[in-house]
Amino acid sequence: MRVMIVGKGKMGTRLAASAAEKGHAIVATVDRFNREAIGSLACDAVIDFSHPDNLAWVCDYVEQQCCIYLCGTTGLTQEQMERLKETAHTCPVFYSANFSYGVAVLTKLVEWLTPLLETDFDIEVVEAHHNQKQDAPSGTAKMLLEAIDPTHQYARVHQRDGFVGKRGREIGIHSIRGGTVAGEHSVLYLGDEEAIRLTHTASSRQIFVNGAWKALAFMEGKKPGFYTMQDMIGGIR
After folding, report:
1. FRET pair for 206, CA 20 to 30 Å: which of 7, 48, 63, 160?
2. How far apart are CA 73 and CA 75, in angstroms?
3. How far is CA 201 from CA 98, 107, 210, in A?
């Protein structure tokens, strides 16, 4: 496909470097500083791992082109997510806060495991990332929270500080930032004299690049709609 990449950071660079071996051609790499240069440049797909501030103009361009839109930008507001879903009415849109296949499987495991344990176990989410990450908690942590508690029955406590009293019906979310950590996410189920920890560790950003190309292959020929990693992996037996 003819692919436009939004974002010139580490993910955008890796995507551009690996496109040819996947059989794709990069028609442009753009960001907010040179977006005017795209004009009416045609493409088959846009891959966007950039900044929430880019979402509005990227959606405008995608709708104009009627092309595939793969969005992996985190830190989106509820309003921006609604904008993304509006674009999905006219174009095929694939969104994930994390393009790792392993994280997609972890999310499915959490959906299955939580109803079995939540009566007797407390639940915590811990995520760690490099010192350049700007949003917290991570988009993946938020995705896991939704898998744990889709109907928002639990209070969500970010970090803890001071005399907070006994634990209530809550899920604690903890963000660690430092070094060059590509990403680590753990869901902890803490019971009486026993505990279960599910952890996914990313060794490098290459896993997200691999996932993006896998998602693009999945999206080829899809009708307009809003797709996720769960659609791609299907059910786990």
Report:
1. 63
2. 7
3. 12, 14, 15
Helices (H), the chain: 10-18, 55-65, 78-87, 101-117, 139-148, 206-219, 229-233
Give the C-alpha separation, 212 to 98, whole Å: 9
pLDDT digits (tens, 9 = 90+) for 196-217: 999 999 998 889 999 999 999 9
Contact 84, 76 (CB under 8 A): yes
**Three-state SS across 108-122?**
HHHHHHHHHHCCCCE
Given the residues 51, 130, 133, 222, select the one marked as catalytic.
133
CB half-sphere exposure, 208, CA atoms < 13 A: 25
d(CA 151, CA 164): 25
Is 133 an annotated catalytic residue? yes
Asked if 10 is an active-site residue, the reply is no
Q: Helix 206-219 to helix 101-117 angle, to the nearest 10 degrees?
A: 90
The reported pTM is 0.77
> ∠ CA(1), CA(41), CA(227), 5° rounding?
50
